[in-house]
Amino acid sequence: MLNGVMLLWFILTLLSVLFVVIDIRSTPESKVLKWGFILLTAYTGPVGAFLYVLGCREPLQGLHERYVAARWRQVLGSTMHCVAGDGVGIIVGAVMGSFLSLTMFKDIALEYILGFGFGWTIFQALFMKNSMGGSYIGALTGTFMSEFLSMNILMAGMISLVSILRSVVSGADNPLHPEFWFVISMGLLLGFIAAYPMNWWLVSNHLKHGMLTIRPKGDTSDGDMPDHPNHEGGHSDGMKAETSHENKPGVSAFELLKMTVLSLVVLGFGLLIAYLFGNG
Question: What pTM, to 2 d.p., does this model score?
């Protein structure tokens, strides 16, 4: 039964990734978010492709700015960006942990460190530094807390499910078996769902950006929208019109502290589930 489900999942994932890779080339989105959707689809198969079509794909020529302006689509872009970047490090950590025969919590720690490190230093700070004044150090500082909060919730959702599945699915802890990749995929999917509410709070309080619209120079599609926060006015360099939300925090230190504590509590709950139901 499981083998049939996995085979269908992998086939659908391959088809979904091919569709997104081909189709997203014509979508007026930033390059980093395009890569983000490709990675998300590789992790979550048809779910990722569905979210791309529903949340980012331009429905008609010139409507992308209006289409992605909806708050839930902005949050989708933010969450996808987080999971895409963190997921690379998490997967590398999971593979390394398996080959090194690490215990469950050492494996989790390695996945967290690599996931957070890659997501923060590469996908957030490096790829988005142009939208933050061009300073990499400034981008690191400006994106640290938002990445930390989102990563905690993502990891909590992922490790709770992965630990349970690894305890009941034979071969799920071995990267040479398809069960390993299926379980990781399910874990990242749950992590995405879990991180979405936190990203809603982050986007609502201008601590993270959402979807963007990047049009080639000379493309004036939807050019009569000066009030739209994501309209790039035909710029091809990426983010001149989009001033980084991370540089404009909209919450007090106390509010940020509350959300930090909440994220750590959720992460702790995920670790507790892993301890109670995982195979240690």
Answer: 0.88
Residue 124 vs residue 89, higher pLDDT: 89
* Cα gap 77→230, rounded to integer Å: 12
Residue 207 dihedral angles phi and psi, to the nearest 5°? -95, -15
Alpha-carbon span 18 to 81, nearest angstrom: 19
Provide DSSP, 138-194: HHHHHHHHHHHHHHHHHHHHHHHHHHHHHHHSTTTT-TTSHHHHHHHHHHHHHHHHH
* Burial per residue of 184-200, b for 16 or more beta-carbon CB atoms within 10 angstroms, e otherwise: bbbbbbbbbbbbbebbb
Burial 231-241 (b: 16+ CB within 10 A, else e): bbeebeebbeb
Distances (CA, A) of 105 to 73, 97, 155, 174: 35, 10, 13, 16
* pLDDT tens readout for residues 236-247: 333 333 334 444
* Cα separation, 109 vs 100, whole angstroms: 13
Q: Residue 223's pLDDT is what?
A: 43
**Nearest C-alpha neighbor of 98 from the set 189, 179, 176, 169:** 176
What is the spatial distance between Cα 17 and Cα 243, in angstroms, rounded to a whole number?
31
What pLDDT does residue 219 have?
63
